[in-house]
Design brief:
Elements: E1 9-11, E2 14-16, E3 20-22, H1 37-45, E4 51-57, H2 75-90, E5 95-99, E6 118-119, E7 128-131, E8 135-138, E9 143-144, H3 147-166, E10 171-176, H4 181-186, H5 201-219, E11 224-228, H6 243-256, E12 261-265, H7 277-286, E13 290-294, H8 300-308, E14 314-317, H9 319-323, H10 327-333, H11 363-370
Parallel strand pairs: 3-4, 3-14, 4-5, 5-10, 6-9, 10-11, 11-12, 12-13, 13-14
Antiparallel strand pairs: 1-2, 7-8
Length: 371
């Protein structure tokens, strides 16, 4: 068993330690939106994953919808993120930054002065957003981007990708999933535009594809991946008749751009409808570079099944990495996993921001403490 999971994997020009990725997870520890030493410690603790993918990181002030979300659009952000990339590389790991523009998902209280919630159309998302000042608040109605602003937003992604390489990242993952700005353009509920970025499947996919193309031209296809969540319902994404057509078209066009990977997430383990097997099969057929599957993988048997069947080239695991910094070793040894505390996923514990973040011990530390 596990003939592939723990063997080296190739991702473009990178040789990874194994076929496991740490999925991107929002952790909200970037005070003032600047990455810090605590975050570097967190990522370094988990550097035994074949590939680390960071939490969503905004390419612009308008994309900082969450409290304490990191940015990557100025020199201070570059210096802050370099702490993490240096720490991960020192342990032999590889790390991509997930570039995520929150779009209509956010609140003015979380945004820097002068920034605003924007989206493809002036359609508010249902639900609420945490703010440190006034706790839960309704999502605002975003201001619809003009056609020219859509194009300038693409350039924000490009500039952020360039800064990512400057900060030492091995590459970037464009966040086209979970109901954030890129997916907001894909979905006809949130995208009611009448210009070339709205209407048909091809028009609604244009922003995603033009962003991917521009980033590839800036930093190279071997450093550019993307995350997608077909059939997902996160952040008030409604289902629509052309879902499968949309993602089949995206997979085909993204393959033409030769992106190093496509990261496909299934949120059924968190209550969303499962992505149909035929949808995954179609994407796998049309996108022939590295396919990363994520969503509810907790055991070596599940990972190995996805790898052996050819459904995936890498498998991403999320929440178990929160409480098991040495998850790879624990899975390899068949050791019981430590439970995580959801109360500290996005907020500090009573003792501070490190609690529920960097204070989960590795197995060796746990065993030493009990002797």
């Amino acid at each position: 068993m596990a003939s592939q999971t723990f063997s080296p994997a190739q991702l473009g020009s990178l040789q990874l330690q194994n076929h496991l990725a740490m999925a991107p997870m929002t952790r909200c520890r970037a005070l003032g939106n600047v990455p810090n030493t605590l975050m570097a410690e967190y990522y370094a603790q988990r550097a035994s994953a074949g590939l680390l993918i960071t939490e969503g990181t905004s390419p612009s002030p308008n994309g900082l919808g969450y409290a304490r979300m990191p940015g990557l659009f100025n020199a201070e952000h570059v210096a802050g993120w370099k702490l993490s990339t240096d720490a991960v590389h020192a342990k032999g790991g590889h790390i991509f930054v997930q570039i995520m523009h929150s779009g209509r998902i956010g609140h003015a209280l979380n945004l820097p002065e002068g920034a605003e919630a924007v989206g493809p159309s002036a359609v508010a998302a249902a639900g609420q957003m945490w703010t440190d000042q006034q706790q839960m608040q309704d999502h605002p109605t975003p201001r619809a981007l003009t056609t020219e602003e859509v194009r300038s937003t693409i350039q924000e992604f490009v500039q952020s990708a360039k800064l990512a390489i400057e900060a030492g990242f091995d590459g970037v993952e464009l966040h086209g999933a979970n109901g954030y700005l890129l997916e907001q353009f894909l979905n006809p509920t949130s995208n009611q535009r009448t210009d070339e970025y709205g209407g048909s499947v091809q028009n609604r996919a244009r922003f995603v594809l033009e962003t991917a193309k521009a980033v590839v031209e800036a930093i190279g296809a071997e450093r550019t991946g993307i995350r997608l969540s077909p059939w997902g319902t996160a952040s008030d994404m409604a289902h629509y008749p052309e879902i499968d057509e949309t993602y089949a078209y995206l997979a085909e066009e993204l393959q033409k751009l030769n992106l190093v990977y496509l990261h496909l997430v299934d949120h059924s383990s968190m209550g969303a409808p499962a992505v149909p097997a035929e949808t995954v099969a179609t994407i796998r057929q049309k996108f022939t570079n590295t396919l990363i599957l994520a969503g509810g993988y907790n055991t070596v048997e599940e990972v190995e099944g996805a790898l052996e069947s050819g459904r995936a080239n890498l498998v991403a695991i999320g929440r178990p990495f929160v409480s098991n910094p040495d998850l790879v070793a624990r899975l390899k040894q068949g050791t019981e996993l430590a439970p995580y505390d959801p109360n500290t996923f996005y907020a500090p514990g009573p003792e501070g921001f490190h609690q529920g973040y960097t204070d989960y011990p590795a197995l060796a530390e746990t065993e030493a403490a009990t002797k």
